[in-house]
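Design review, sub-item: ligand-bound model
Attendees: FS, YL, KQ
YL presented the inputs for the zinc ion complex:
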Amino acid sequence: MGWIARHLEETRFSPPPEPAPYDLLRDLTAGRDRFVLTSNADDLFERTGFDPARIFTRQGSYARLQCLTPCSDDTFATEPWYRGALPAVDLVTERIDDPAAIPRCPRCGGPVVLNVRGGDWFVESPYAPRGARFAERLEGAASGRLLVVDVGSGYNTPGVIRWPAERIVADHPRANLVRVNLAHPATPVALGDRGLGVASTGLALWRALAEVRPANG
Ligand SMILES: [Zn+2]
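KQ shared the predicted structure:
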C-alpha cells in the first residue's frame, strides 16, 4: 500500500498541478444548468469548485477505500488512513513495513483497495445516487436544448464516456455534441450537423473561448 499512499499524495491530496482547464471550464459554464460525467477518479472537478451533487464519477474515487472481497457494500474515507500511513512509507522501496499502517476492512479484516472500477469487486453504491440524478437530469432535458461536451474520451474505454455521450445526443432531438479531442475528434455521421468535432485539447479551446467572450458575458 506504500506506493498507493504516495500516488494518493500526488493525485488526490495535493493542490491540482494543472487546474487551468477545470477553472476555465467552470467559469465558461457558470450559471448554466450543468452536470459532469467523468471517468476520472481524482475528483478534480469537485476540487476545482464544481458542485459535488452534480458530478457523477462512475469509475469511483480515490477518496474512498473498500474491502477487496468485498464483504459488504461499505466504503470508507481514504484520507484518515492516508494521513497516518504516509510517514510509514519507505521512500526507497515505496513499501509500508509497519503492519499497523496497512488498512484492513473494518468488517472482515481482509485487504482493502481503492474504490475505483478495476474488477468485479468494485462497489458502485457510493456513486449510484448521482448516477440516478444524472439519468433524471437527462430525462428532464428531453424536450429542451442540451449541449453535450465530450472532452478527451478516446477508444481506451469508449463505453464509459464517448459512446454514452453519442447516445445521449442521438436520443435528444434538440441536443448537440461538441467533441474536443486531439486524436479522435470525429462524431457519428448519423448526428449530422448536431455533431461537431474539435481537434484540440480542452485547455486550448477553453482559452480561445474565454478570449472571445464579452467581459460581461
Ligand atoms: Zn471485508
